[in-house]
Design a protein that fits this description.
8 strands
Length: about 200
């Protein structure tokens, strides 16, 4: 049965097998870095409000399958970011003890990394970079995530265009990365690249 003049359907081969996600590396260390970036022009960024509870933040991360949320204000302004490491690590206990409260009383604003402290790279540099260059940049700043900035073509204002995630890069390289330990994460990725 024909679908259109340009695209025709065919009967499936009886020998066909199912492609298994992660059964081969989708990128390599010398692949263009842009292939490993989550591009917010194509994928909606995972966001949360600054007054959301840590339970809401964790639930949002689980539902979206991410470990980083961009914290936004009422008008959509960028306030910061929060990671699973922030919400599930020792930080909530330390902050709540210092305030004389309980970890479940904290909100995203209490633990987020504010905009002024976020390390970014520019899209114009990403275009000419390789995956290994991004991993080196992430290691240099000691982060498992690195935001990418460009300029809005209509207004010229800076905007967050995308994000690199060590976990996502690991998956694309065929390396299962399931840790908050930055040194271990990069160690697992480097070991896979050496093979």
């Amino acid at each position: 049965m024909s679908i259109s003049a340009k695209v025709r359907s065919h009967r499936m081969s009886p020998q066909a097998v199912l492609c298994v996600a992660g059964s081969y590396n989708m990128i390599g260390p010398d692949s263009p870095a842009i292939e490993a970036m989550t591009d917010f022009a194509r994928v909606t960024a995972a966001t949360i409000s600054a007054d959301a509870s840590l339970i809401q933040a964790n639930s949002t991360m689980i539902a979206r399958g991410v470990r980083l949320l961009i914290v936004t204000g009422e008008s959509g302004s960028l306030l910061g970011l929060i990671t699973a490491r922030d919400t599930l690590g020792e930080k909530p206990v330390q902050v709540s003890q210092a305030r004389g409260g309980k970890p479940n009383e904290l909100i995203v604003a209490d633990l987020m990394c504010p905009v002024g402290d976020i390390d970014i790279i520019y899209l114009k540099d990403v275009v000419n970079a390789r995956v290994v260059d991004i991993l080196d940049a992430m290691r240099a700043v000691g982060r498992q995530h690195l935001l990418v900035e460009d300029a809005d073509p209509l207004t010229g204002e800076p905007r967050v265009r995308g994000v690199f995630s060590a976990t996502h890069i690991g998956r694309l390289l065929g390396v299962p990365v399931q840790t908050f330990d930055i040194a271990r994460t990069f160690g697992e990725i480097e070991a896979a690249l050496a093979n």
